[in-house]
Design goal:
By secondary structure, the protein is an alpha/beta fold. Helix content is 34%, strand content 23%. The protein has a seven-stranded mixed sheet, sandwiched between helices. α2 runs antiparallel to α9. The N terminus is likely disordered. Bound molecules: N,N-dimethyl-L-histidine.
Length: 328
């Protein structure tokens, strides 16, 4: 797969193994607190399981954010205005993206995604729903500055980053991404970003450990993926899904907990886990008004408006690239 800059997006060895995946797993499982970066949760099976998560009753973020997009269209139109190129970081949701596009009458739509297949499917879907809207899909890693298509060069941009995916990054990575988005979008850009809110722990716990066990499958799929792609022998059934609230960092953490002492191999290397030891697989940070503003400001964005759903569970924040200095 190649990016819009002609660079290889997935670097595979002679046997077709994704080198970055292998390096992250071998390194992460050698740490005192075993951990694997959350991006590896999303192979085809993981992406499908995440789609399933968005429909389970306990997982409120997707419904809460959709509610805001459905109800606040007139306000988006007034505050954002028509004629912008909407640049979506990720290939776009078949539900959320049309709600935004219908509300603000953009001049173009530019979905950015590292997965060409998702990107093309989303772009085709959009082209049917909005036959007069120019759509420019760009296959790219949006964690780095992306060269946008010529066709949108002179248009003011609106970045769209829904879903609270920013919450899956630690603060340093989130700030790097926000700054990179600013470089990609240019000086007069605006950003509409979803950020999930801190709330009652029991609600959070249930959202990340649902009764039907879909999130547990999503989490365990990472171990299955390691076995499949890296020649691993992890006894997946001996790892239990756990969602824990970390109050110091205001985040839900997903872990895989060893149910007994374990020994296994990955890519020819031996690993052990003592009973109760965990592999940390994901962070999902939650925000309040101040912490979300601080993160955005650190990333070069000034919040100008925020919306929440009626139950106050989720926020959608409009920010602008210009920094307003309150002191010289
Ligand atoms: C993609 N991301 C915003 C989801 C979240 O809520 O942090 C991923 C997820 N992990 C478990 N459930 C959902």
């Amino acid at each position: 797969m190649t990016s819009n800059t002609g660079l290889q997006l997935v670097d595979r060895d002679e046997e077709g193994v994704d080198r970055a995946f292998r390096a992250d797993v071998l390194e992460g499982l050698s740490e005192a607190q075993k951990a694997v970066p959350a991006r590896w949760l999303y192979d085809d099976a993981g992406s499908q399981l995440f789609e399933d998560i968005t429909r389970i009753p306990e997982y409120y973020p997707t419904r809460a954010e959709t509610e805001i997009l459905e109800r606040r269209g007139e306000e988006f139109a007034r505050l954002i205005g028509p004629g912008r190129a909407v640049v979506e970081f990720g290939s776009g949701s078949s539900v959320k993206t049309p709600l935004l596009l219908r509300a603000i009458e953009p001049a173009a739509y530019v979905p950015l995604d590292i997965s060409g297949d998702f990107l093309r499917a989303a772009a085709d879907d959009l082209a049917i729903k909005f036959p007069h809207l120019p759509v420019y899909p760009v296959e790219a890693d949006f964690m780095r500055k992306v060269a946008l298509p010529e066709g949108v060069a002179d248009m003011p941009k609106l970045g769209f980053f829904p879903g609270s995916t920013i919450g899956n990054m630690v603060a340093r990575t989130a700030v790097d991404l926000l700054r990179t988005m600013r470089e990609t979008l240019g000086e007069s850009a605006r950003l509409l970003i979803g950020m999930d809110l801190i709330k009652d722990q029991s609600v959070l716990q249930a959202a990340y450990d649902d009764a039907a066990g879909v999130t547990a499958q999503f989490n365990r799929n990472l171990a299955r993926r390691i076995n499949r792609e890296l020649g691993g022998t992890i006894p997946v059934d001996d790892l239990q899904h756990e969602a824990r609230w970390n109050d110091d960092f205001a985040r839900i953490e997903m872990h895989l907990v060893a149910q007994k002492d374990l020994e296994f191999e990955i890519a020819g290397r031996g690993f052990t886990m003592a009973k109760g030891e965990t592999i940390h697989t994901e962070n999902s940070h939650k925000f309040d008004q101040r912490s979300s503003a601080t993160l955005l400001l650190a990333g070069g964005w000034t919040p100008v408006h925020r919306w929440t759903d009626d139950a106050g569970r989720f926020s959608l924040i409009l920010a602008e690239a210009s920094i307003k200095r309150s002191a010289p």
